[in-house]
User: What shape does this take?
Amino acid sequence: SPGESHAPIWAPDSRRFALASEAAPQTLNSFVKLGIGHILSGWDHLLFVIALVALGGGLGYLLKVITAFTLAHSVTLILGTLGLVELPSRLIESMIALSIAYVAFENLYRRDTTRLIQRRWVAAFGFGLFHGLGFAGILSEIELPRANFLFSLLSFNLGVEIGQLMVVIPAFLLLTLLARWHWQPTLRRAISL
Assistant: This one.
């Protein structure tokens, strides 16, 4: 009808694009908030990104690993929510727990940190695939609006990214400031423990 705004949205039941009504701004707001709330209350995901940041490595390292993690979990969040990739939740949750333990273990026991910094993005990407399926599991418990399905999904993912940055940026800045003190390696080990 005249005066309504429309945006292309994926309709999962018909596998075609449909139109969304002017409810899209409300959908954006509510699903961004949901994504932020999920990541800030999701200790497993927070522990993983903090373990990634705890290694140090500078801004280039941070951008590389967080980008790899974001790309991976965004892909599997979308594929999992659309029902194109499904794994048992027990496996997904176990892999998420393993991701935290693996990265923390490397922080504690790997001596060649230069090489670890160069290749950590691979682990961030690989484990990020499972974290995305974990996010998709949360969305499967919520009935996404059919008219705004893709828009809701992307809004949730945007919220997850905002929430992730709300943790990663302060943690990175704090660890960068603390790098001047001689006890900073002890702090990094404590964070990994």
Q: What stands out?
A: Residues 9 and 18 are 5 Å apart (CA to CA). The longest strand covers residues 7-11.
